[in-house]
Amino acid sequence: MRTPGRVVLLVAVGTEPVLNPGAVAEAGRGTIDGVQALDLALLNPVPAALDGRLRAFGTVRGGAARFDPDVSPFAGLPLDPAPGDWADLAALCGPGREVAVVRAGDGPPAPPQGWVLERRFAGVQMDGAAVPGEPDDDAVELGLDDRAAMAELTERTRPGPWLPRTAELGRYLGIRHDGRLVAMAGERLRVPGATEISAVCTDPEFRGRGLARRLVNAVAAGITARAERPVLHASADNEDAIRLYRAMGFTVSTSMRFDLLRTPAERHVDAGAAALT
Predict the structure, then answer these.
(1) Is the residue at 135 inside a domain?
(2) What percent of the chain has pLDDT over 70?
(3) Of the ranges 49-53, 67-71, 246-250, 255-259, which is most confident?
(4) How confident is the model at residue 99 (pLDDT cuts 50, 70, 90)?
(5) Do 14 and 80 fall into the same domain?
(6) This prediction's pTM
(7) What SS3 string covers the chain?
(8) What angle separates helix 83-93 from helix 266-276, to the nearest 10 degrees?
(9) What is the pLDDT averaged over residues 9-21?
(10) Are residues 117 and 145 in the same domain?
(11) 208 and 262 housed in the same domain
(12) Number of folded domains that form the chain
């Protein structure tokens, strides 16, 4: 999905208990108010990640958190955001910017006045607690010398947002054919106890050979070796991908929405900021 301006993916859930993201990060595998902290972190992974393992890759302002714009378009809010939280997010993103808002549920979010809902999109979160993974002898770890090839592959296959520093978020594996990178997968969002598998893509010429499945298994093997849970996200209408992941042992844990919004114009940002002072 290409849109003008700066795109930010917000992960938030409005139907769960409101918790400080730092409390979720510190709790790890424990419980908070009887709810598994890991499950809460997975429902709102951006604050949990940026308040913990990926702290160096983004910024937190009040209840809002966002990755550096050259790393990831993702941002997050408290699970039940107040107007001040929306104002913080608008300040982090800048005025008049497009924001892809991801949240659990069947309907789009209800942001304050000044925000504009421009596109609605449904997705799912999938849980890989039952996926042990399996190393693959043909899967090679990708490094700095592979960044151009990784960018070129994601540009052609569109597995999701890919920015100049996205590869710094975790470990990425690829499969080459005659020296050419033809498939890859890697790690993106990382919260205490779980890591998201992302950027799963295969060159169109090499699809149908099971490369995506092999790479997802190989990445999952590295995650489970750290005693963590593999998770991933998929478009709700991508039946082929969901079918593949189900066959591997992933289960759909949460219905998600990916809704494109535009942050308020400058005057609304100023008004929101003034309300906080």
Answers:
(1) no
(2) 82
(3) 246-250
(4) confident
(5) yes
(6) 0.83
(7) CCCCCCCEEEEECCCCCCCCHHHHHHHCCCEECCEEHHHHHHHCHHHHHHCCCCHHHEEEECCEEEECCCCCCEEECCCCCCHHHHHHHHHHHCCCCEEEEEEECCCCCCCCCCCEEEECCEEEEEECCCCCCCCCCCCEECCHHHHHHHHHHHHHHCCCCCCCCHHHHCCEEEEEECCEEEEEEEEEEEECCEEEEEEEEECHHHCCCCHHHHHHHHHHHHHHHCCCEEEEEEECCCHHHHHHHHHHCCEEEEEEEEEEEECCCHHHHHHHHHHHC
(8) 130
(9) 39
(10) no
(11) no
(12) 2
Residue 60 lies in a domain: yes
Task: Let me know if residue 21 belongs to a domain.
Answer: yes
Q: Are residues 94 and 182 in the same domain?
A: no
- Same domain, yes or no: 15 and 91: yes
Residues in the chain: 277
Name the residue range of residue 169's domain: 140-234+243-249
Beta bridge partners of 251: 127
Assess if residue 133 is contained within a domain. no
Pick the closest to residue 25 from 150, 174, 193, 143 (CA basis).
193
Mean pLDDT over the full length of the chain:
83
- Same domain? For 229 and 266 the reply is no
Digit-coded pLDDT (tens) for 198-218: 999 999 999 999 999 999 999
